C-alpha cells in the first residue's frame, strides 16, 4: 500500500494532508477495501521519508473523518463505511468520489482558489455531452 502513496516535500500541501487525502481517495475508490490493514506508523514514515508524527497526524485525521478505525493490538484498518457503494455517500460512485478528491488535492497543490475550481467544475458540468451535427 505504501507504494501507492507519494509525498512531495516541495509541495505547499503539508505532508500529513497528502497522506490523508491519498489514503482517503484509495479507500473511496475501493483500492483499499474495508478491513484492509494500513502499515504501522513507523513503517509508513520510513517508506515515505517523513517523521512518524506526520503519519500519526494523517492517521488521526483519517480516523476522525471515519475512513479508518484504530484497533488495539490489531493496527489501523479501513472502516466499513469508508468505501460506501453507489447510492450511499451522497449517491456518488467511488470512482467519482476519488476523482473529486484528486481534483481538490491537485488544485490545493497548485494554489488554485476554491472558487476558481468550483467555477471550472460547474463550467465543465454544463458542457454538452454530445455535439449535434
Automatic annotation (TrEMBL):
Under InterPro entries, the record lists: Tscrpt_reg_HTH_GntR, WH-like_DNA-bd_sf, WH_DNA-bd_sf
KW Transcription regulation (keyword) present: yes
**Domain named HTH gntR-type: which ranges?**
13-81
Q: Which UniProt keywords apply?
A: DNA-binding, Transcription, Transcription regulation
**Is Signal tagged as a keyword?**
no
Pfam assignment, any one: GntR
Q: Which PANTHER family match?
A: HTH-TYPE TRANSCRIPTIONAL REPRESSOR YTRA
State the name under which the record lists this protein.
Answer: GntR family transcriptional regulator
Q: Which organism is it from?
A: Arthrobacter koreensis
